[in-house]
Amino acid sequence: MTAADDGGTPGLEESLDLTVPPSGPGCAECESSDGWWVHLRRCARCGHVGCCDTSPSQHATAHYRETGHRLMRTYEPGEDWYWDYVSEQSFEGPDLAPPIAHPEDQTTPGPAQRVPENWRELVH
Known about the structure:
It comes from Oerskovia rustica. By secondary structure, the protein is α+β, with helices and mostly antiparallel strands. The chain has helices spanning 28-33, 59-67, 119-122; strands spanning 40-43, 49-51, 71-74, 81-84, 89-92. Helix content is 15%, strand content 15%. The longest helix is centred in the middle third of the chain and has 9 residues, at 59-67.
């Protein structure tokens, strides 16, 4: 990992905090608004869990736009990649503080009780 050379964007090392836990098992904003998600992403800086860009509300990208926290890590069981919003590239990186994924018994999309039957028609 290398630092950014645009002068204003934090480098990758400054964008990681390996000690902060995730904000919860699901998308923080969807949970507070009774929404639902397709996949989850976790901010590598502050632990915020947001929904992916396939999800109706795209809260992970909104979190990046609001905070400038450039790195998200997948929060899906069995996956371990990062996404850098600045370079628009994925990469492998270190494990964050546990848990590293939402509970395995949590449905995808989820949560099950809020996912509409026509969810495939509503995704991006």
